[in-house]
Specification:
Blueprint (H helix, E strand, L loop, with lengths): L5 E13 L11 E4 L2 E6 L1 H15 L6 E3 L2 H12 L5 H14 L4 E2 L2 E2 L3 E3 L1 H12 L5 H9 L4 H6 L15 E3 L2 E3 L6 E7 L13 E19 H8 L2 H17 L6 H4 L7 E7 L25 H15 L8 E6 L10 E2 L3 H18 L1
Parallel strand pairs: 13-14
Antiparallel strand pairs: 1-11, 1-12, 2-3, 3-9, 4-7, 5-6, 8-11, 9-11, 10-11, 12-13
Helix pairs in contact: 1-8, 2-3, 2-4, 3-4, 4-5, 7-8, 8-11
């Protein structure tokens, strides 16, 4: 237990009218929790947003997840060796995947395959030298995982030996309160319609809701270190994850609703025993009522802070708690308030480095 280092990341974040994560009918996803219907944003949706933040805002090694990784590798082969034809490059790329135990059909993998950039470069090198040893090719696919593969894992049904366990977990975000479905009836006018045509060129409805969300994720940094095998890169990857968790947003219907908010609260708990999801603070939903001038966010933050103290009946007190707060609430004496997320990340980095140096 003394070598464990868990990072719990919590956020309270309000969304205005929005539909960031739709189900198969186009409706915002929901869940029943505490006997009432809540707004929900799936973990997969927010993990995608976090990965996009990695790509757009950092220089980290971020993988690709695609059926078209054969084409991806063949392009790298062509860039490395201009004497190879396009057809030969595709053939070489397909062979290294097949020899590694990944099945293909019509020059595509049978399922989405998650591949890091460094892994892709080494795999292309192996293809050029016509490497056929399955053990060597599998080693390439298992070593040097990109930051998102290490954090979110990889599943390969064809060959479980290529699986990568996730060192991070992301919960489905749910509203701290009950929500009701609402509908926007919209019309669009035809700019070139005849003057005697008063009708709309298009009409329809969009379902939406408004919510104050509780969001949660965790990182097992001791596992992340085992995967990345570099202390500095492990700390950097964890900092990037926390930053991306706070600042990313799923893009569903974002042009329609422009729901680009930031959290009211970001809280990071460092634990040595186990991660703890504090959603139980909201099993009894926050109640909205007429004349409530504080909305749902302040009550949600207060309930979340109280839940941290309640959990100590079952788990150890966090080694350290940092938080960034945008609301006027009573501040807990067991946490360190940070002026900004940048300050939080700097203090987190110091704790993390000390852990690796002293473990």
């Amino acid at each position: 237990m003394e070598n464990r280092f868990f990072v719990d990341v919590h956020a309270i974040q309000s969304l205005p009218p929005s539909n960031v994560n739709r189900d198969d009918t186009g409706s915002p996803k929901t869940a029943i929790y505490g006997g009432v219907r809540r707004s929900r944003v799936s973990s997969q949706s927010w993990k995608r947003a976090i990965r996009q933040y990695f790509i757009n805002e950092s220089a980290a090694d971020v993988g690709v997840r695609s059926l078209n990784v054969i084409k991806y590798i063949s392009d790298i082969i062509l860039a490395k060796d201009n004497s190879v034809t396009v057809a030969d490059a595709i053939s070489l790329a397909e062979k290294v995947f097949n020899n590694a135990g990944v099945k293909t059909k019509d020059q595509k993998t049978k399922a989405l395959f998650f591949l890091g950039k460094k892994q892709a470069e080494l795999l292309a090198d192996a293809a050029i030298r016509k490497e056929t040893n399955p053990a060597e090719l599998k080693k390439i696919l298992c070593d040097n995982p990109s930051v998102d593969i290490a954090l979110f894992g990889r599943m390969v049904a064809d060959d479980p030996s290529l699986n990568e366990d996730a060192s991070a977990q992301v919960a489905h975000a749910i509203s701290t309160h009950e929500v009701q479905a609402e509908f926007d009836f919209y019309t669009a006018l035809d700019d070139l319609a005849p003057e005697d045509n008063a009708g709309a060129g298009m009409l329809g409805t969009v379902e939406f809701n408004s919510s104050t969300l509780y969001r949660y994720a965790n990182i097992a940094m001791h596992d992340l270190m085992r995967q990345i095998k570099n202390e500095e890169q492990t700390v950097s990857a964890s900092k990037l994850f926390i930053e991306a968790f706070a600042n990313s947003m799923p893009t569903g219907k974002s042009n329609t609703f422009a729901n680009l908010t930031i959290p009211h609260l970001l809280m990071v708990n460092i634990r040595r025993d186990r991660p703890v999801n504090l959603v139980t603070a909201f099993e009894n939903p926050v109640k909205s009522y007429a004349g409530n001038s504080t909305g749902n966010s302040i009550t949600s933050i207060e309930k979340l802070f109280a839940e941290v103290e309640k959990t100590e009946k079952f788990v150890q007190t966090p080694v350290k708690t940092f938080y960034v707060l945008n609301e006027n609430v009573d501040k807990p004496d067991w946490g360190v308030e940070e002026a900004s997320i940048s300050n939080l990340l700097n203090d987190f980095e110091e704790i993390a480095i000390n852990y690796f140096q002293g473990r």
